[in-house]
Amino acid sequence: MVPLASVATAADYAPTIRKAVEVDPSLAPVSERMAYKPDGVQVGSFTLLPALGLSTGYDTNITATNSNEKADWLFVVRPSLLLRSDWTRHMLLLDTYFESGSYAKYSDADYQNYSFGARGRVDVTDDFYVTSFLRWSHLNELPGDDETDTGLQEPLGYDQTVAGVGLRKDFNRMWVTADFKFRDRDFDNFVDGVPSNQSYRDGQTYTVSGRVGYDISPLTSLFVGGSNSWYDMESSAYNASQWNVVGGVVFEPSRLMRGEAYIGYGEWTSDSGDFDNVPNVSYGLDLSWFVSPLLTLTFTGAQEVLTSNYSYLTYDGSAVLSSTFGIRADYELRRNIILSGWFDYENQNYEDFPRDDDTYVYGAEVKYVMNRFVEMKLNYSYTDFDTNFNGINGAESYTRNVVLGTLTLTY
User: Fold this and answer.
1) Cβ neighbours of 62 (radius 10 Å)
2) Cβ(20)–Cβ(27) under 8 Å?
3) Nearest to 225 by CA among 242, 243, 240
4) Which residue from 333, 332, 276 is spatially nearest to 33, judged by alpha carbons?
């Protein structure tokens, strides 16, 4: 399904390499510009921003399958609150939302998500700041959303806690960043209404990362960096670690282009030895190209290693090398009308047996901001999932069309 977008404000975005973007919206990508900014409610030195999202649409394949296709109308209600600090230094954001999705015919596909979170930044000096975040959520993995396709046909609920702390320090033309991130997930042990042990996905992930960069110009930096992750799972067979070392560039060669790219090498290692180790090229791309003041193209790409409990012959699970690439176009037809289109591709290569999956997603959206109180969107997406294991142990190729209209009310 197409997720509802929460109401964003300029303060939602982390400090950028080009600080002018934070004070001059015309320097931001088209998708991040705001035709009208909600006033909110002043609460001391904070602004409270309430919002209500109402969506309805049609999904031609809510089960993400080709042998048990179910088409249905979807209705989503999402109230949310954002409390934003108005301080001249430092920053604090508190937010919460509740999202309820209901289907007209198939109530077993209904779901409820809710979340509470906080983010902050402490500006120690002009060239040194510390950030942190904490979020607890109850979420649902929907058919077609699972990290590695295992034939899920009903929502699978789970609780998730994420937290982290990071810092950045500038030394003249050099800069250093360091981050620690934590994630804990606890999945329900029912899949499609049937008891099913999901403990292989329960557990904690710890990641330590850092970068050292050098400014070769005011808007362009070269950097080297590295990270190490540990996966401490309830099912010890899925315990693993992963490291990588990369080199890259954060750049803005002109007002026409901005972003970052990196490439390096890493390895994913199974602690138990039950899965093959996965040495791999690490890469990432997040590039915005300002073709004109009214058109922004965004390119993204990444590679990571996942794990799956998908069974084949004598193999009970596998490491999965996941590679993604995306391109998106946002066009400002009018100051308050944004036209968007995108294409996303993902390849998942199972390392322990010859399964290979390809996912192609095509989408389009029209966003109309009537005023600071009302925003409307019409969104369409087409998904084509193809696996060479079609019909083997529940793996199925499928196609899916989703049309969703959203009305967002803000204050």
Assistant:
1) 25
2) yes
3) 243
4) 332
Query: In the chain, how many domains are there?
Result: 1
For 348-388, what is each residue's pLDDT tens digit? 999 999 999 999 999 999 999 999 999 999 999 999 999 99
CB 158 within 8 A of CB 127: no
Domain annotation covers residue 5? no
Is position 241 within any domain? yes
Angstrom distance (rounded) from CA 174 to CA 222: 10
- Residue 335 falls inside a structural domain: yes
Alpha-carbon distance of 196 to 151, in angstroms, equals: 13
How far CA 274 is from CA of 243, 304, 354, in Å, comes to 19, 19, 16
CATH code where residue 94 lies: 2.40.160
The rounded distance, in Å, linking the Cα atoms of 367 and 379 is 9
Distances (CA, A) of 292 to 4, 30, 250: 28, 10, 21
Q: Give the position of tokens 């950097």.
A: 223
User: Could you read off the pLDDT of 279-300 as tens digits, one per residue?
Assistant: 999 999 999 999 998 999 999 9
List the domain range (segments joined by +) for residue 387.
Answer: 10-410
Q: And the tokens for 221? A: 């930096």
